[in-house]
Amino acid sequence: ICQIRRYNVPQYIREHGETYSLIKDRLDKYLYIVDKPGLSLEAMAEYVKLMNARVKTVDIVAVDYFQKMRGRDTIGDEELVAERTKDFAKELNVLFVILSQLSKAGQGKDSSGKWHEPEQKDLRGSGAIGDSGDYVFLIWRRALDSTLSPIDKEKYKYDTMIKIVKARERRNENEVFTLVYNPDTSRLSEKIEEDD
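Predicted structure:
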């Protein structure tokens, strides 16, 4: 928001208290964070209903991350929770975004030790969360590719790859986009690859 380096934010707040207050007030109107691990879908629904009744209509619910949700102790439970996320979104009329970790096998290397891009099957758990989602995006850091040279790792250290592996209305799945992080402004923007 301020377009400055993250570690300069405390100094910015001290020097620009009035601007910080305006930004904070604006964010407080539109962003509500429940920092409680292990919430069930039912508990999340109660928070949404409470916000809808008291403050403002909730448009988006984001869960960080699926493996920390309550009620997914077994593979069967996990599949049930994943299926119920669609009902949750429909009933509350929200966009429901769920983050999920990759399994250890999906974090960069295949059985032969070679780098591979993550795939939907690499989502941690039974795979139910990927199966139940209308859209599945995989996100990873390009510089983590163990086959890159040190020079290329430095070149790609701010690159974030996003691959669309499932999209309800799209035919072109497995499209990959590159976002680049600018540490001076703390912003991500699409990277335009230059022709050599």
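Summary: DSSP finds six helices and six strands in the chain.
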